[in-house]
Amino acid sequence: MQDNGFEVTPWDVEGNVDYRKLVEKFGTEIITDKLKKDIKKQAGEDHMYLRRDYFFSHRDLGKVLKDHERGDGFFLYTGIGPSGPMHIGHIIPFYFSKWLQERFDVNLYIQVTDDERYWTGDGTTEEIESYAEKNIMDIAGVGLDPDRTFVFKNKEYMGNMYEAAVKISEKINFSVASSVFGFNSSTNIGMIFYPAVQMIPTFFEKKRCLIPAAIDQDTYWRAQRDIAEKLGYHKAAQIHSKFIPALTGPEGKMSSSKPRSAIMLDDSPAEVREKVMKKAYSGGQVTKEEHRKKGADLSVDVAYQWLKNLFMENDDRLEEIGRKYSSGEMLTGEIKEILAEKLNSFLEEHRKRKEDRGEELKRKMMYEGKLARRMWDKKVDLR
Amino acid sequence: MQDNGFEVTPWDVEGNVDYRKLVEKFGTEIITDKLKKDIKKQAGEDHMYLRRDYFFSHRDLGKVLKDHERGDGFFLYTGIGPSGPMHIGHIIPFYFSKWLQERFDVNLYIQVTDDERYWTGDGTTEEIESYAEKNIMDIAGVGLDPDRTFVFKNKEYMGNMYEAAVKISEKINFSVASSVFGFNSSTNIGMIFYPAVQMIPTFFEKKRCLIPAAIDQDTYWRAQRDIAEKLGYHKAAQIHSKFIPALTGPEGKMSSSKPRSAIMLDDSPAEVREKVMKKAYSGGQVTKEEHRKKGADLSVDVAYQWLKNLFMENDDRLEEIGRKYSSGEMLTGEIKEILAEKLNSFLEEHRKRKEDRGEELKRKMMYEGKLARRMWDKKVDLR
How many angstroms away from the CA of A228 is the closest CA of chain B? Predict the structure, then answer.
């Protein structure tokens, strides 16, 4: 779909995005203060992503909270397409999932879409396999509960899921699939089948499934929500984030294929600092004099946006930075230093967890943890 | 495709068929006397299906024979869609495969398309599973080599095949799939994926794959023949049979959904005799007097056609029957008695093998035989 200069399809997001329009367009709901309060109450604490409206939209989140309150529980589902190294934007949703998992004590399923990446032509079999292993190691670095998290590669796990894939795919016709995913007559038949594969984990449990993802993923789940109840399951609930702007500016999102536009998880502290100082799009003025007079435009300043949405926990400190930077008291170089430091401490912690326990966590989440063992022992058959 | 009053698509065959036109239409080749001689020489004996032109058309059969002569070998692939009980028309190709397997000492792969039958809406999961078990027992009754035959249900074996399915499906787009299979926008995305699944066994070995099937199946393999060499494999070779006319007449073929039009494998001798005597479409004349004068039209007489194509081994005896029946010397009741007797002795032998060794053969062909064990141990990955 193309509209008002911004384009949002499941495959591609570019342009400066008006989130309120997106909510209207997709027909999702804004996360209200009431809902935020309910989450805080049930979780026992707040999360900055919600407080700052980085996660800002949802479907059926109220029902998820009711299910949890009643003791019926729910489960989380997210995924990763292994076609390159991971950047900050890829890993953030896993950290949010970790918080949800800990606070609500729920299972988390992570689909590694090695089949879909092949169908989209994003690499050879060998390249995709190699990225899958690396990406899973990065997910291990998040420190998810290894007994409540199941990470599976579609190609490897399909033996346990095909019965479900057969039943789901029978319920979706080409017309629906192509309107949701933008297929046409030159789309390969693997890709056409993929919506069914992507949907399987929403039926892993009879409980309600909550999917944390950027809002452009919402369309993906339209077909699931159409058929779930016919199959005796719940419509997938969702909690939607905004897009993380690329380092180089608010016109689009980070991409592994443009590594200079993103902070990669394996960037060294010096690389991070250099990228931020040199590449981060600034809302500040061109000359120091002008900046002192006019101040910065926070709405397009990448350093400020990243701090606000993702890295600056402390509300007072954020408010102070915003005030000083927008008034011209703080210079671009200064706010960039703050971001570089935050990024490097985030990445250092991530890498340390990965080095210390990565291999063990990966093995457990994939094969040996409690949930993984249960999943390998069963056929997902929707009965 | 619809043309000249007969319709031949992979899903449906009806009407009186001109086989020579079909060969032209599909662009296949007639099995020449030279080829028949080569088969006889290499097989060490003749087969009546070839002698009588029941198997009458092919693709690349000459190459298959050359491969065999050179010692490179080949393998056989056929399948069954488990949506009902089997009739005579279903089991005949397995008997021909058995002969090919024995004479050429080759592996035979039998795909049970429990996924496809679900996608075509031919039953509930439970019905299809139940028919799959029964159909496989009937295949066991054929007495195939249990160490060189692998019978697999797609849903059960997909874990070993999905890697191949991913690679194959990437090479086929909706346009090609829909032109071959007649898909449209209301076709479900499982069915759209199915051409890739059906194709996988043609890549089970690096040798040439020979598919024995009725000629209407030819189109199925067009996409395989388009992509096989790109994947480093051979184009699937085929040997095509005519359609077995329904008991009730030459207008179409037998169908399990019209059990009175077919001889079912579990029909009792009395039922077989009654169906043949009462339902078999006759080329004879209405009154005895007229018949004695004009004789029978062999080309539409089901009893004669079945004897000629399938059940009367003895050439002299067939010639005698044809001569006497067409001249009016033999009556319809007499030729029907001959057919009923042949059918019942065929079915009795089949049932006896099934009762004596069916369970054992089924287990071996599916799981415990040499070939089955090898197939369960490996991933079909096209590498």
Answer: 16
- Structure tokens given for B118: 């679900």
A376 in B contact zone (CB under 8 Å): no
Type and span of the H or E element at B237: strand B237-241
Q: Is A162's CB within 8 Å of B155's CB?
A: yes
Domain span holding position B103 = 2-247
B55 lies in some domain: yes
Asked if A205 and A81 sit in the same domain, the reply is yes
Among B162, B171, B185, the residue with its CB nearest the CB of A174 is: B185
Hey, what amino acid is at B231? L
- Check which CATH number belongs to the domain holding B312 and give it: 1.10.240.10
A194 located within any domain = yes
Residues B340-364 pLDDT 10s: 999 999 999 999 999 999 999 999 9
Q: Which residue has the tokens 């992503």?
A: A49
Amino acid at B232: G
Q: Do B174 and A189 touch (CB under 8 A)?
A: yes
The model's confidence at residue A8, banded by pLDDT at 50, 70 and 90, is very low
Which tens digit of pLDDT belongs to each residue from B102-128?
999 999 999 999 999 999 999 999 999
For residue A161, count other CB atoms closer than 10 A to its CB: 26
Check whether residue A227 and residue A280 sit in a common domain: no
Q: Which of B162, B186, B189 sits opposite A196 (nearest CB)?
A: B189
Kindly state whether A377 is in contact with chain B, defined as any CB-CB distance less than 8 angstroms. Answer: no
Structure ipTM: 0.92
Cβ distance of B170 and A190 shorter than 8 Å: yes
Kindly state the tokens that stand for B343. Answer: 């059918």
Condensed to tens digits (0 to 9), the pLDDT of residues A326-353 reads 999 999 999 999 999 999 999 999 999 9
